[in-house]
Design goal:
This protein is α/β, with parallel strands linked by helices. The protein has 2 domains: 37 residues, no CATH class; 188 residues, Rossmann fold (3-Layer(aba) Sandwich). Helix 9 links the parallel strand 7 and strand 8. It is globular and about 50 Å long. The two termini are 33 Å apart. The structure holds zinc ion (2 copies). The site of one zinc ion has 8 residues, from helix 3. This is Competence protein. InterPro entries: ComF/GntX_DNA_util-trans, PRTase-like, PRTase_dom. Belongs to the ComF/GntX family.
Length: 229
């Protein structure tokens, strides 16, 4: 029996047949099925480019907006869950109140899906120096570091307000705050970079992160992955 991190109930963590005979480290579940069921998967009918809400058009309204700026150079994004009330509460406890233990829950919610997404570099969207100081841990790297090998090549400038504290219009107006850390070279001709973040809201953050990378790594095929959309 295991105790659910979220509700404290005891539950039986089932080990699958594949896991039983796997060479990989066995990961047992840390949340019960009742808690898990509160996080809703994005429905099959979603924006084919970013997993957003489908509109009357080919893409969602966010992507249509980005098309005006980027034309055909849209960022392809993959997300797993709807940002519902349960997810919002989870993220508030994790990020605002700095409950580090919850990184295990987030890790569990994306483990299977992320390990299926092959890339040469997995680049986490960085936390601002101020938030790192405040929380003492990097919220994005902590979710993904046990799942894939991270290349922390992006940095974030200090002294800018966080996206989470802004409304939609302010988010969209925010300026580029990412940069590629110096002395980073890659010895591959063609390669895939997967950007990792927690939530795709307007896409502003991920497009900025993509732009910063694309400038330094023009041969890279860059896409993104987030828990929520
Ligand atoms: Zn539970
Ligand atoms: Zn879209």
């Amino acid at each position: 029996m295991k105790k659910c991190i979220l509700c404290g109930q005891l539950f039986v963590a089932k080990v699958s047949f594949i896991q039983l005979f796997s060479w990989h480290k066995q990961e047992t579940k840390c949340i019960c099925s009742n808690c898990q069921s509160k996080y809703m998967r994005i429905p099959d009918k979603h924006c084919p480019n970013c997993f957003g809400k489908l509109s009357q058009n080919k893409f969602c309204l966010d992507c249509i907006n980005w098309q005006k700026i980027y034309g055909k150079k849209l960022l392809k994004n993959h997300s797993l869950y709807l940002y519902n009330e349960a997810f919002h509460d989870l993220m508030v406890n994790y990020k605002r109140y700095g409950d580090y233990a919850l990184h295990k829950v987030l890790e569990e919610l994306c483990r299977e899906d992320l390990t299926k997404r092959q890339a040469d570099l997995y680049v986490p969207v960085p936390t601002s120096p101020e938030h790192l100081e405040q929380r003492q841990f990097d919220t994005i790297s902590s979710i993904y570091s046990n799942l894939v090998s991270l290349t922390c090549v992006l940095g974030k400038k200090a002294g800018l307000s966080a996206q989470g504290e802004k409304n939609r219009a302010e988010r969209l107006r925010s300026e580029q705050s990412f940069f590629v850390k110096k002395n980073f070279t890659i010895n591959l001709k063609k390669y895939k970079i997967l950007l990792l973040d927690d939530i795709y809201t307007t896409g502003r953050t991920l497009y900025h992160a993509r732009d910063a990378l694309a400038e330094v790594f023009p041969n890279a095929k860059i896409s993104s992955f987030t828990l929520c959309r």
